[in-house]
Every structure is written in C-alpha cells, then in structure tokens.
Amino acid sequence: MTDLVALTAELVDIPSVSRNEAAITAWIEGELSVVPGLELTRIGDNLVARTNLGRAQRILLAGHTDTVPVNDNAQARLDGSRLYGLGTTDMKSGIAVMLEAARTITEPAVDVTYVFYAREEIAASESGLLELLDARPDLLHADVALLGEPTDGVLEAGCQGTMRLRLELFGERAHTARPWMGRNAIHRLAGLLEALATYEARTPEIQGCAYREALQAVRVEGGVAANVVPDQVEVVLNHRFAPDRSIAQAEAHVRDVVTPWLEDGDTIEVVDVAGGAPPSLDHPLLQALVHRNDLEVRAKLGWTDVARFAAAGIPAANFGPGDATIAHTAGEYVERDALERVWVAVDDLLRNGC
Amino acid sequence: MTDLVALTAELVDIPSVSRNEAAITAWIEGELSVVPGLELTRIGDNLVARTNLGRAQRILLAGHTDTVPVNDNAQARLDGSRLYGLGTTDMKSGIAVMLEAARTITEPAVDVTYVFYAREEIAASESGLLELLDARPDLLHADVALLGEPTDGVLEAGCQGTMRLRLELFGERAHTARPWMGRNAIHRLAGLLEALATYEARTPEIQGCAYREALQAVRVEGGVAANVVPDQVEVVLNHRFAPDRSIAQAEAHVRDVVTPWLEDGDTIEVVDVAGGAPPSLDHPLLQALVHRNDLEVRAKLGWTDVARFAAAGIPAANFGPGDATIAHTAGEYVERDALERVWVAVDDLLRNGC
Question: Suppose A182 and one of A75, A121, A229, B147 were both cysteines; which one would form an S-S bond, judging by CB atoms 3.0 to 4.6 Å apart?
Fold first, then answer.
C-alpha cells in the first residue's frame, strides 16, 4: 500500500494557507477523478467525492485542506518516524487517510462521502464547510460523520460549545490628581476578575465522556490617558460549555456569574457563539469503530466542525492522526505510528461497516 | 488702565497651539521692546524680560504661551463678564496679567523677571522652560516664582509629584478549552485591582496645606486571541505624592502596595516621574501676597512647572485667574472678576514687595 507518511509529505508540499486552497483541491480532484465509481462535485475550493453503491448506511469523512500561515515550516521534512512541516498534524495527515481510502477502498461495506473543504483556519463566516452546507446540503447527508482533526488516534466525541462575550464597565473621568471627583472603571474589575479566577467549572459526564467546562477573560482593555481616571474598561470572556447545555442556557449561566459585578449602565453582549455537539457514542457505526479497534474515547473540549454536522442532524466525532497540542506550532509533526493506527481503523470501518 | 479682558482676547486671537508660539512671542516681544528699563532675551520661542533696578529681592512671574489644539474655539468671544475661547483659562489670562505688569509697572519695589515660555502643553521633554533652564539658568534666578497657571485666584502652594509605573504580570498560554494547562494573567489582576480600589491615600498637611495623595490604574491591556489563555497583562499606574516625599520614597511606597500581588518574573518599572514642590508659604513675599490680599490658600494637587523652580531652589506657587476645572475644554472661559482680582494682587506685590 501507499506510504501514508510520504503521501502526507506530498500534501504538505502543496502550499494551502487559508484562501489558497485551489491548487491542493485541484490536485486531490485529479487523484480522485481516475477512481471508478466516485461521484465528484467541486464547489468553490471544496470537493465532495461520493460512492453510490446503494449501501444501507453512509459514512462521511471530512477534513479541511487549508493550513495556518507558514512559520518557517513550509516544506515537509522526515526525521525517523516523524514527519515535520506545516499542516502535518493539522490536518494533512488526516487528509492523506481520506485520500488513500477514497483511492483504494472501491468496494466499501457502507457508502462513503469524502468532504475536502477550504478555509477552516480563519473566521467561521468564511468556512468552506458552511459554503457546502448552504449550496448543497443534500451532498452531505450521512448516517455518521468523522472529522479528521488531530486527536492522536483517540476518538474525541462530540464537542463543547464556545461563546465569546464582551463586557463594558463604566466609571467617570476625572484628573488623576483628584480621583475622588470621578470613578475608576479599571478598579471596578477587581471583583469580576476574582470571580473568574475562583470560578468552579462544571464537568458533566455524558455517555462516559467528561466535558470539563471553562470560563475566563481572554482580553482586557481600558484607559484614557496617563492623567485621566479611566471611565471605561472592556473585558472579553470566553466560555466553553458542555453539549448538555443549549446556547441560551450557557448564556444565562455566564450572566449569573458576572451580574453581581455589573451595575446599571454596564453592558454585556454575546459577540459570537457556536453550540456544541453531543457525543453520539451509541451510534452503531461509532460503536464498531471504537470496539473493533479498542480506541480510547474522550470528550472533545475544543469546538470543531463536528458541531456543524450535529446541527445538521448527523452524529459526528473527531478522529485523526495529528496531535492537537502541537497544532499551529512551527514544529508541528505527525508520527508514522499514529497515522497508520488511524488508517487501520478507518480502513476497517469502511470495509466492514457495523 | 488696560481692559485685561480685552487684552486676553487679543492674546487668544493670536493662534499659539504648542510648537506654534513664534507669532505670539514676537507680538509680546514687540509690546515689551518699547518699555524702558526692561532687558529682553529671546531664546527660541521663549522670551525673558527683566528689570535691573538693583532691588533687594526679585520676583519671577512665569507663564506658557501655548495652548492645546483648537476645539472649535479659536476666536475669543465675550459674553457678559465671561470671555470664551481657546486659552482663556489656560493660560492667556495669566499671560495678560504678566504682560500688563511688565508694560505698566516700571518702578516696582522688587526686581521682576517675566518668563513667557513655549510648549508646556506637550511632552515635558519639549518644554520651553526646560530649554531656558538649560540655556540660561542665570536668567531665571529669583527669590520667589509665581506661575500663572489657572487657580481661579487662589494661591495654590507647591505641587504634588507624579509618577507613572508600568507593571507586567505573566501567566502561561493554553487553549481556552483547556485553561488548566496554562495560567490566566488577566485573572491575576484581581488582587492588585482590589488593593488599588481600597487604597487609603495619605493626606499629609504641610504648612496648613492638605496634600491628598492618589494611586490608581490608568491603563490596562492584555489578551492574545479569543481562544488563548492570556499569558501577559500590563497595567499602568499613576501615583500622585505629596511634597514631603522624595521620588525614591514615593516609588518605595508604590512597590510596598503592589508587591504582594507580584511574583517572580513579573516586572515593575517607573515610566516617568517628576518630583513635587514644597509649599514655601513661609517666604515673606508669598506671605505678603496672601495676607495683603486675603487670598485663599490650598495645596496644588496636580503637577505644574513650579516643581522646576523648586528644583532650581526657587520657592514657587501657582496663582492665576483661570479655572483649572474647565482647562482644555471646548467651552473654557475666564471671568472678568477673577482676572481683575489676580491683577490687583500682582500689582500690589510688585509695587510694594514685602
């Protein structure tokens, strides 16, 4: 069979920083155009490849082709069992698994939809997956979706929601030589920051997965001039919430936490939000994947595009060879062993189904 | 005698935003060049006018000729007893008093030095007064100095020092979905801000003047990205300290207050500092000014150029017709009554000395 490390290296060496996915998509399209029985649909810089074998079930494998910007790591470089280079972990090794499956598993036990999409690493509004879901939602129908984001060969179930909130606390300007004529908005943060520092996050367990939540300040900014008592300060919070809570419930919770530190006139607004995805581990295809390969299973704490599949009614999980903890670093790499373990599991699932 | 409100209006109508003082300085120089017995020295856009009558004492009157930028108030406009316009309060009304004294009091009981200087409203490093003190310190020798900054006819004694300090607190980056892998630097501010919010300032009384101190945050900034636990936050503090403390003592005090909230690796540095000036109310000339005119006396809480005179060994106080609380506002004005009260006191002091 193909050396998946070499295939990943080939993909790394095709530059595909976000919004520049045309070349890599064309290359993948070229590879798949010669595979019998695959129906290819290109929409923008996204490519969907589908088998249409009339199987009882359909599995969707999805991965983004773009990378974060180059960080002196544009070329793939093999060092023993490790392949270094931009996108090795996030997520051209996952793309290599999808590509190899599409090229070689021509008689799967389930129908398969391969989704190669653009612009995942930038603003959600630019997402190629959203573009596909808008343009041709029918192309993405499936019984279960696996997203090849880096999980180091662990099945990371569902995902948590994420919410960003912007708070403004106000005061009153005065000369700093006479601060008692005004009110310092920055000083007003003390209680709120203490509440965040001592916040006790929930860790609900859902289908055996522990979704540890989080709430924290990710930005603070305030000040007028060196001799002026500041009359405004802004804090941006990020809340990660388990998939047992809706967006509305999560927002209500954050408001409960911060409201004691706000006063009339202060403001709080949700800047952006994306709901989570439940683990769906009871789905027979995910059960087969886990049990036949003895996979480790855990909750996905970060937000991923599995939430988009979940929102479309498709049970989804994260499963890829990369290591998320080194994603987006200059020294990212993928290990041959992780790549081959993920391949074996995917190959088995597609060939044998439940 | 001259209508001082009209003279102030004439000065207001000569634009002199900082670094553009050439025209107003030339105009003042023209006015004084015809006064017998005045020795004029122009250095850059600064002008020094001195009597040399061999009197036992010398009083220095100083004022800056520049203004903050135009704010739709470039032209003087009289409305009843109020003169509106840029610089009416800060401090062309004070300049009018100096100019009128220099033009009309040709036989003062004390020698007089009039100092018209440039660029007070911008960075201290550009100060015309510093330029003079560097170039010709001999020209500024005097027994006492009065600075015509706006005090609404009150004698504001000495001034407080001011110090700006920059603190950096550090943490450790992590993904916001796994904040326990890092440490939130913004959250670490909670204790420091609480200490500042509940700070109990000293109010030492010196020669009957209460110097109420202050310590506060004037700027805060931190944050990396919406999904990153912030590893750094910066806070800028402003400390106003009474003239019974040296710069070193004031810095030691701030360090005492903030150190409990700092850890190894955090930083604190003094960004800029200017010492205060003691009240010097026991000087016979200041005593005469206060008692013969029944002046209200209070501590100057803001920092002014009296500190430069104090540093040069010259007792100094603030005394001008403008109202500091409306300085730098679009609607600044000066009242005829305040202008004439200050004039009467200055006229008396120069004609009669102690």
Answer: A229
